[in-house]
Structures are given as structure tokens and as C-alpha cells.
Specification:
CATH class of one domain: Alpha Beta
Order of helices and strands: EHEEEHHHHEEEHEHEHHEEEHHEHEH
Radius of gyration: 19 Å
CATH topology of one domain: Rossmann fold
Helix content: 25-40%
Number of strands: 14
Shape: globular
CATH superfamily of one domain: CofD-like domains
Bound molecules: ligand FO1
Largest sheet: 7 strands, parallel
CATH architecture of one domain: 3-Layer(aba) Sandwich
Strand content: 15-25%
Length: 339
């Protein structure tokens, strides 16, 4: 978090860390990758969504980032590989085996490769770095930790993994709790530690706070690294017109009786962020957020494609040097790991 009395960014940031989940995070990453100098962007990805399927390690957020930043992502889904075939899954289904998780053939290959490499004792960080290099990414892509920290959803049927709840059960069971299992013991990797220590800007993507960002912030070592950083930390709100555009966020917030709107987002990131970018449709929220000590930019935050993502990034980078009067917030965010 920045000492905003002394921070004045005048030049293009040279080392930017983006904390990101899946689809929303990947779109933000695309704009940053295009706008920043080569090698300036490090994306730190959530691994709470990871799932074992046929004994394979599936990492939806890391893979969505990998496919998006390498230009391979399915444009219609926002995840998976564009034009991928489904021979393997269809063959499994014909054998009466589970097919609830839609994995294309090329995607299967990545999971086979990753699981084989993990079985050889390699770290997830090293495997993803190699995949990113071979796929020609212009950014560094890091899992927040090499330790499994599965996000689990409490329902009337008991605790479900996130993918079991979201994909297999179509997000239908009512949510009565969330936990980030193992997060209190897990630590960020040395690569993430170094990237944050060297950063001159930290951005939190417009990803789902409960499912993408907080599973990472539940690692106390990430909070400590962010607190020790002198770089400004800016979150982009995932809300448009005060609501989540799509996905399970709105439903979860209401099931868990958590306050919504941008005030709710600011509260969730209290003590971590110095500034919040909100959509122009929510400009009326700006004064109340500023009164809490946040710097606020209201602009178009809808990023359906690379052009709009680049426009948002450029707007954000232009605005950064002007915000130094914002005072930092102080109270830490509570760890919401539930029993
Ligand atoms: N989302 C779905 O709605 N249905 C699926 O069958 C599905 C499979 C899947 C496989 C690999 C992958 O990387 C992502 C996949 N997703 C699927 C998306 C994923 O469930 C979510 O978008 C993220 O976990 C939320 O960040």
C-alpha cells in the first residue's frame, strides 16, 4: 500500500502486478499487457478454483489467463480454447464416465502435461512459467501459491468444491458459507514475493472479490507483502450499475447477506487498496468512497474485448499521477474463512 504523501507517479509504471481471477481478470490483463512495456506485467492468479477431474489438476483461473494472454481463449465462453474439439470428453461420456466439467481436447492436453509434471515433483509455478513461455506470453504468470487452497462452498448438501457447486450443480444450491481451505497455512511463492516487492503499481482486477481475490488475500503472507509495498494499490470494481454483470457474485452476496454496491467492495478491500476505479454508471458512489479516504476514478469499466480493456488501462495510467492526495485506509480486512 502506498505512502500517498510521497507517491507521485509521473512516468509509465515499469513493474506492474495484477491480482486476478478468471475471465474478468484475464480481460484486464490483456489491456495491461498491451499498454505496458514488454515484460512489465506480472499476473498473480487465484488457485482457489482448481479442481481434480480424472485425477488431473485443472486450474481454471491460471488457464483462462494463459489462453487469453496468448490469444487462444474461446471468445464465446471466455475460458477454454477457441475452436477446441471434445473427442476425449465425448468418448468418456460414451463409457458412462463423468462429463460434467467441459474440457476440450487441447485443454485436456494442458491438464495432462501439468499433472504429469506435478507428479515429477515440479512446482506449479515452474510448470506454468514454462507453458507461458512456450505459448508466447508477454507477461509473467504466477500462481499465488504452490500449495492447494481450495475454495469451498457450504450448502444444505454440505461443503462442495467451487467447481462442483458452480459447474456440476449449476450454482443452484443456496450458499450458506465460504471457506478458503488451507489458506491460513499456505504462503505466497518467492516469485510472488519478489514481484510485489519490486512493483511500482499493484492492480486488483475486476474479478469476483469473494471467489477470486479474497482466496488470495486469505494468505497472510500476501497481505504482508502488499502492506510492505510502497506501490499504490488500485482495485477495479467488478460492478456496473451497482451490480455484478454476470456470474455468481450477486447471488452469493445476497445468500451470505453481505452488503453490496461499491461501498461493499471498498469494505472488502479495506486496508489493502488506496484507490478504486468504478464504472461511470456508478459515479454517484464516488463522494462516499472519497470520504472513506479512497482515490476514485469513475470511467467506462466494461471490458468485453481487448480494445476496451486497453482503453480502460490507458485511462487508469493517465489518472494515476493525479491521485496523490488520497489518504490510505487502515483497518485490515478480516479473514472470512468460515468454520
Ligand atoms: N465453466 C462452466 O460454466 N462450465 C464448465 O463446464 C467449465 C469447464 C471449465 C474447464 C476448464 C476451465 O479452465 C474453466 C472451465 N469453466 C467452466 C469456467 C470456470 O468454471 C469458471 O469460469 C472459473 O472457475 C471462475 O473463475
Amino acid at each position: 500500500m502506498a505512502d500517498t504523501t510521497s507517491t507521485c507517479m509521473t512516468a509509465m509504471p515499469q513493474r506492474v502486478v495484477l491480482l486476478a481471477g478468471g475471465v474478468g481478470g484475464a480481460r484486464m490483463a490483456l489491456g495491461l499487457q498491451a499498454a505496458l512495456p514488454a515484460g512489465a506485467l506480472t499476473v498473480v492468479a487465484n488457485v482457489g478454483d482448481d479442481e481434480r477431474f480424472y485425477g488431473l489438476q485443472v486450474c481454471p483461473d491460471l488457464d483462462t489467463l494463459l489462453y487469453t494472454l496468448s490469444g487462444r481463449v474461446s471468445r464465446s465462453q471466455g475460458w477454454g480454447v477457441e475452436g477446441d474439439t471434445t473427442q476425449v470428453l465425448q468418448t468418456l461420456a460414451g463409457l458412462g464416465a463423468p462429463d460434467w466439467m467441459m474440457l476440450g481436447d487441447a485443454d485436456f492436453a494442458l491438464h495432462i502435461y501439468r499433472s504429469w509434471q506435478l507428479g515429477q515433483g515440479r512446482r506449479l509455478t515452474a510448470i506454468m512459467a514454462e507453458a507461458a513461455q512456450r505459448m508466447g506470453l508477454g507477461a509473467q504468470l504466477l500462481p499465488v501459491t504452490d500449495t492447494p487452497v481450495p475454495t469451498e462452498v457450504a450448502t444444505a448438501q454440505g461443503w462442495l468444491s467451487f467447481q462442483q457447486w458452480f459447474v456440476r450443480q449449476r450454482a443452484e444450491p443456496q450458499v450458506c458459507g465460504l471457506r478458503y481451505r488451507g489458506a491460513t497455512a499456505a504462503v505466497i511463492t518467492p516469485e510472488v514475493q519478489r514481484a510485489i516487492a519490486a512493483a511500482d503499481l499493484i492492480v486488483i482486477a475486476p474479478s469476483n472479490p469473494l471467489l477470486s481475490i479474497e482466496p488470495m488475500l486469505a494468505l497472510s503472507s500476501l497481505r504482508s507483502a502488499l502492506a510492505a509495498s510502497r506501490a499504490p494499490c488500485v482495485a477495479v470494481s467488478p460492478l456496473i450499475n451497482g451490480k455484478a454483470i454476470k456470474g455468481p457474485l450477486a447471488r452469493m452476496l445476497s445468500d451470505l447477506k453481505m452488503s453490496g454496491g461499491n461501498a461493499g467492495i471498498a469494505k472488502r478491500y479495506q486496508g489493502v487498496i488506496d484507490a478504486l476505479v468504478i464504472d461511470a454508471s456508478d459515479a454517484a458512489d464516488a463522494d462516499a468512497l472519497r470520504a472513506q479516504g479512497l482515490a476514485v476514478l469513475a470511467c467506462d469499466t466494461m471490458i468485453p474485448d481487448q480494445a476496451r480493456s486497453l482503453a480502460l488501462t490507458e485511462r487508469l495510467l493517465q489518472w494515476l499521477p493525479t491521485w496523490r492526495n488520497a489518504a490510505p485506509t487502515s483497518a485490515p480486512l478480516l479473514n472470512k474463512e468460515c468454520a
